[in-house]
User: Fold this.
Amino acid sequence: MTILVLVAVFVGASMQRITGMGLALVAAPFLVLLLGPIDGIVLVNACAILTAGLILPRVIRHISWRRYAVLASFALLGIVPGAVVVQQVPGAWLQISIGLLLATALTVSVTLRRASLRDSPGVRAVAGAASGFMNATAGLGGPAVSMYAMATHWSQRGFAATMQPYFITISGASLVAKLVFGGAEPPQLTLLTWLLIAAACTAGLLLGELLARVIEPNIARRMLVVIAYVGAAGTIVRGFSQL
Assistant:
């Protein structure tokens, strides 16, 4: 089981470096299956903070701090109603609904990819709030902001860089909420396993660093869309499996 956990973290970390997001989308379904819904998502949050923190110094000069400030602020606000909804709506149906809505929104975004949405604080606020809500309800904070990036034609380099402090913020908030207010506990893993997970994150980032130098931005954007679809499908499947 430990090897499967390490593989999931390694692949997720490499995708995080190439596209700016992907660790949670790629690793979460497998970690939830291997460790359970609570331990799996807690581990994803911890790995997301570590991975984004390691990437941050490499991309800091490309970060759009204004976009980050609006997106992150409203994402934190979106986490609040998301936490309330989780308590009121059965988790399985909630995940199925979110997965279907996400797949539909992605399809619309891809279909209308030539159309432009004027970037504004209001658009950023909606994207951030939706991201926070989805992060709290299904552990998927990335797809909403990726759709915003596609609709506003945000450059892949700027998007990938800005997502690192963004994911540190929302993953940190989610982790604190689960451990402090939600009564969750850190996964009961050995020290060696934790060290191996950290090493897998680092190795995945190194591979992603190499690949990011040769992969064209348009290819990275297509990978981003594919990863988002995988996240939507995984959420739907996870929801049906809990019925």
